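ok, trying the design again with the full structure, not the truncated one.
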């Protein structure tokens, strides 16, 4: 059974840091492009950061560039998102995604809440 389980969310003050983790099971994540997306109520889910399967090249939304770092450890089947210099506008539910774009295969996690507030 395919599963993506996120953890690491919580409440943090502006300027603080959090590290999200996403543990994959039921498939081989090294074959997949992995990403973190986020969503606030009433808005569409948006891509925050992505890391490719083959050469681990990365892609970031302009809104998080320079503050967030995505990484993967295929030996642990785990995806990470290091979030620094957090802002209130980073408040959202963060979702882990695994996909093989050319096959149209997509798996989503259940999400973890990140709240940035003083």
């Amino acid at each position: 059974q395919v599963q993506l389980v996120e953890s690491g969310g919580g409440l943090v003050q502006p300027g603080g840091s959090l590290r999200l983790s996403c543990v994959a099971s039921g498939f081989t994540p090294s074959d997949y492009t992995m990403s973190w997306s986020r969503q606030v109520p009433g808005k569409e889910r948006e891509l925050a950061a992505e890391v490719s399967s083959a050469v681990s090249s990365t892609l970031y939304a302009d809104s998080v560039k320079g503050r967030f770092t995505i990484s993967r450890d295929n030996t642990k089947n785990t995806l990470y998102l290091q979030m620094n210099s957090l802002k209130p506008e980073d408040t959202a539910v963060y979702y882990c995604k695994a996909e093989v774009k050319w096959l149209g295969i997509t798996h989503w996690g259940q999400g973890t809440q990140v709240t940035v507030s003083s």
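Keeping the full-length input from now on. The CA atoms of residues 19 and 82 lie 4 Å apart.
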